[in-house]
Amino acid sequence: MRMGPGRTGMQRMQACVFCEIVAGESPASIFYEDEIALGFMTIGPATAGHAMIIPKKHAPYLADLDEETGRHLWTISQRTAAAIRESGVSCEGINLFLADGEAAFQEIFHLHIHVIPRYTGDPFKVVVDWDVRPSREELDQVAQQISSAYNHMWGGSRERGERL
Ligand SMILES: [Zn+2]
Fold first, then answer.
1. Do 77 and 113 form a contact (C-beta atoms < 8 A)?
2. Where are the domains of the chain?
């Protein structure tokens, strides 16, 4: 998110660079477009071929995205991953990455999915203390918390083993 140029006495809308790309007002290297989604190369790639998939309609956070659009973004991300593997760029693996919120490293508040080609020795790093191993009791406790919230928001989940 960045401010529009200049200041006047009138209240200005904050400009969104991804909305500007959708509108054709900012340059982008676009590789995919349909009615709902746009795919383009990020200007700050983790690796060569690092692509972004965005909804054309502005949605700052994951919670702002309608589920139908979310399904479509997933489909296009999945297809883009396959296209990257076919494309000839260095790619032994793929990461899909979505940052929802500042604490999750979201920097542009127009939701986007990163499709990142990976290869042995590439510069992409994820730093996590994988030595933390909670007890089963702790895992059950947090599963119960999430289950309660899920049921409150979306209705009950199925019992384990119940047929879909
Ligand atoms: Zn936007």
1. yes
2. 17-126
pLDDT above 90 coverage of the chain, percent: 80
**Confidence grade of residue 160 (pLDDT, cut at 50, 70, 90):** low
Mean pLDDT calculated for residue range 49-75 = 97
40 CA distance to ligand 1 middle (Å):
14
- What string of DSSP letters covers 81-98? HHHHHHHTSS-SEEEEEE
* Cα–Cα dist 106/78, whole Å: 21
- Is 110 designated active site? no
d(CA 144, CA 162): 18
Confidence of residue 38 (pLDDT cuts 50, 70, 90): very high
Q: 115 CA to middle of ligand 1, Å?
A: 19
* Ligand 1 center from residue 77 Cα (angstroms): 18
Given the residues 110, 112, 114, 152, select the one marked as catalytic.
Answer: 112
Spacing, Cα 25 to ligand 1 middle (Å) = 12
In CATH terms, the fold of domain 17-126 is HIT family, subunit A (3.30.428)
Q: Which helix (H) or strand (E) holds 115?
A: strand 113-118
